[in-house]
Amino acid sequence: MRFFSWFVYNKSNYNRNKKSIFVAVTLGLVSSLAACSNIEKMRSDSLFEQYCNEEGRVGQFIYERVALGEEFFRSIPTDIRELDRIENSFYIDNKKLLIDKESFMDSYTINYLKRTELSSVGPIYSVESTLVRKSDGKVLSKAVSLLNKRGKTSKIFPVQGVYCQTGRDNKGNHLSTKHHFDLVENTFFKK
To answer: What superkingdom does the record give (predicted)?
Structure first.
């Protein structure tokens, strides 16, 4: 009882202690939130590593190589402005041949970077690109990478996250995105 009477009789100390208690409670809440977010990050990293190490989960998968006839190709333009408008993914054979996008898209469908949530922890996404033949609906090739947001999601500030497959090719491109954008080159060739 003596403890509470001290607060009642000593008003100046009471106000000072009230502020100290408020600061202590606030610091405790902030520390708890930081610890929870750190636990979430550790859980997502562990699950992400497990997904990345599964055999056949990530990479580029070519199910059928397709020979394209002369009607699917066009000459490579020499005008710089026209060259800037051409998507790099339609070059094949080390940029020696250029596939005509319009005639190609009449026969094939490309679905780039479709995200599917694998786990709400993180969240962790499977990012998939596919090449499909329209005549029979067959998937000719696909590229799959994984994305871990590591507990950091924001609608205001975009969060990059961490990708699996890690590493870079000899030109410095990330393997996780390279496999998506060279699907056409690795699936098709000239007759």
So the answer is: Bacteria
Q: 52 is in which domain, residue-wise?
A: 48-190
Alpha helices in the chain (DSSP H): 2-9, 11-52, 80-84, 101-107, 175-181, 183-187
CA trace torsion 18, 19, 24, 27 (10° rounding): 140
Amino acid letter for position 101: K
Please, are residues 143 and 129 in contact by the beta-carbon 8 Å criterion? yes
Amino acid of residue 26: T
Are the C-beta atoms of 69 and 176 separated by less than 8 Å?
Answer: no
The total number of structural domains that make up the chain: 1
Where is pLDDT greater, at 124 or 162?
A: 124
Question: Residue 111: inside a domain, yes or no?
Answer: yes
The whole-model pTM stands at 0.68
User: With 70 as the cut, is the pLDDT of residue 68 above it?
Assistant: yes
pLDDT of residue 135: 93
Is 9 a member of any domain?
Answer: no
Distance CA 62, CA 129 (A): 12
- The number of helix segments (H) and strand segments (E) in the chain equals 6, 10
